[in-house]
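Appendix C reproduces, verbatim, an entry submitted by the partner laboratory led by Prof. M.T., so that reviewers can inspect both the input and the predicted structure.
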Amino acid sequence: MIPLTTMTISFGDKVTHPNFPEWGNGSVIKVESTAVRGEPTARVTVRFSSAGLKSFVGNDLPLEVLVDGHSMPGDRDLKRPAIAEVEDLERSGLTQAVEQKLQEIMHAIPLACRDPFNTSEHRLRRTLDLYKYDMSGKGLMMWAMSQTGMDDPLTRFNRTELEVYFKHYSHDLNKHLSKLLAEMHGESKLINQLLSEAPPRAKRAVEKAKSS
């Protein structure tokens, strides 16, 4: 993700934090100058709908700007996310393509977990972190928010639809995990280290992958 900088964010912008979708959407309420170790930098304060006030210091921010309610990774000039493409298809009357695009979005394993240019450690760490999502009400909503970039996925999907998508996604995630572990054969020390920091569901998935 290209870092969002203080040069591309201002008071009133709508943002989200890609690592914490459960925080909901946020509004930038203050952009001010400060100093860190004597060096000038910026402090950005955001009020998130589900997490309250959060402050970020530095010229590169771990935030994504929202345009028309959708996340714009890194810079607002980049292309809109796939969920917005679904809405474009609907407006164009291309109904047959809508379900295919929705499945693509909901079943997708994040690029950070798959990109061969990322280290195997980074890919495994990000993959294991995905197991924080589950079929509970909160877990399912957090996952749907992460997949779609929507603040409230229930405005588009019902609970049953999300469960069906999540089951397919989980199957694909387990297959991806198995393939990644096979690639990291011989790196058991690193795998165990990452597992010690991973969610319980990730540990169970790794054990199942090893025994299959």
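Helices lie at 82-91, 95-107, 111-114, 120-129, 137-148, 159-183, 188-196, 200-211. Additional entries are available on request from the coordinating office.
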